[in-house]
Amino acid sequence: MNIVVCVKYVPDATADRHFESDNTVDRVGVDGLLSELDEYAVEQALQLKEKAGDDTVVTALCVGPEKAVDAVRKALQMGADQGIHVSDEAIAGSDYAATSLVLAKAVEKAGAEKKVDLVVCGMASTDGVGGVLPAMVAERLGLPQVTLASVIETQGDQVRIKRDGDTATEVIGGTMPLVLSVTDQSGEARYPSFKGIMAAKKKPLETWSLADLGVDAGQVGLGAAWTAVEETAARPPRTAGEIVKDEDGSGATALTEFLASKKFI
Q1: With contact defined as beta carbons under 8 Å apart, do 205 and 82 qualify?
Q2: CA–CA dist 245, 213 (Å, integer)
Q3: pLDDT tens-digit readout, 221-245
Q4: Which residues in the chain show pLDDT less than 70?
Q5: Is this model's pTM higher than 0.90 or not?
Q6: What would the pLDDT profile of 128-179 be if each residue is shown by its tens digit?
Q7: Backbone φ, ψ for residue 2 (5° rounding)
Q8: Residue-wise DSSP of the chain
Q9: Omega of the bond prior to 177 within 30 degrees of 0, cis?
Q10: CB 88 within 8 A of CB 210
Q11: Closest-CA residue to 176 (of 145, 137, 131, 209)
Q12: 45, 80 in Cβ contact below 8 A?
């Protein structure tokens, strides 16, 4: 089986995040890491490999700036067999449509010698939280999609998942090749072992440009984006909270009125 798992390099939520002058997120001048939600995708890809056998290859694919290669390395340390990092200055500022184009072209190139059976994604990224890329990649590849899986079962070329909704759980099946996305309920991601960290240094890791994928620079980037951030403002400093005292028995009423004024109740 040939599995490609898509991973994203995102700004560290604990770091001092900010925007560039063009209102795009600064992904170069801040500390970053592999998106936590994508760790679940890597974990499920590795579990599928363990079930299918040693002839299965798991490839970690990332699109991002030079530092984004760290996300691929983390996936390799977890157990992925090889990595692909698509990096090109023209990609900066791309929206979901352009990013899905680059990912789809990279998946096609990755499957040039042996077709890709499964494209695995996280449910969303921890910075954009769009959750639409798996569906867009599936559309561009012309593949079926089984998304938001909390449980994954495979038998041969058949994939069956459970999707937990607000009121019910759905069971959805599909035949590979297909695109699969998993939620944070699919199982805890493993930590890289010392052996895995050392082994990752010898695993193949390729860097591709837009030219390698046959993608015109005019199709990606902020200039080609369908959406853009027009204005940003710094979060206002935290102010002192309001204290409700219950000195004469009116505290409950005052608290209720305060919560109602803020539309909390």
Answers
A1: yes
A2: 65
A3: 989 998 888 888 888 888 888 777 7
A4: none
A5: no
A6: 888 999 999 999 999 999 999 999 999 999 999 999 988 899 999 999 999 9
A7: -115, 110
A8: -EEEEEE-EEE-TTS---B-TTS-B--SSS-EEE-HHHHHHHHHHHHHHHHH-TT-EEEEEEESSGGGHHHHHHHHHHT-SEEEEE--GGGTT--HHHHHHHHHHHHHHHTSSS---EEEEESS-TTT----HHHHHHHHHT--EEEEESEEEEETTEEEEEEE-SS-EEEEEEESSEEEEE-TTS-PPPPPPHHHHHHHTTS-EEEE-HHHHT--GGGSSGGG-S-------PPPPPPPPPPPP-SSS-HHHHHHHHHHHTT--
A9: yes
A10: yes
A11: 145
A12: yes
Q: Report residue 264 as tokens.
A: 């909390």
Which residue in the block uniquely carries the two structure tokens 């579990």? 47
Question: Tokens 């593949």 belong to which residue?
Answer: 143
Task: Return the pLDDT at 253.
Answer: 86
Quote the tokens at residue 87: 């990096």
| CB distance 225 to 189 below 8 Å | no
Mutual orientation of helices 69-78 and 36-52 as an angle, nearest 10°? 40
Task: Give me the long-range contacts of 190-194 (CB less than 8 A, separation at least 24).
Answer: 190/43, 190/46, 190/78, 190/79, 191/78, 192/74, 192/77, 192/78
**Contact yes or no for 105/165 (Cβ under 8 A):** no
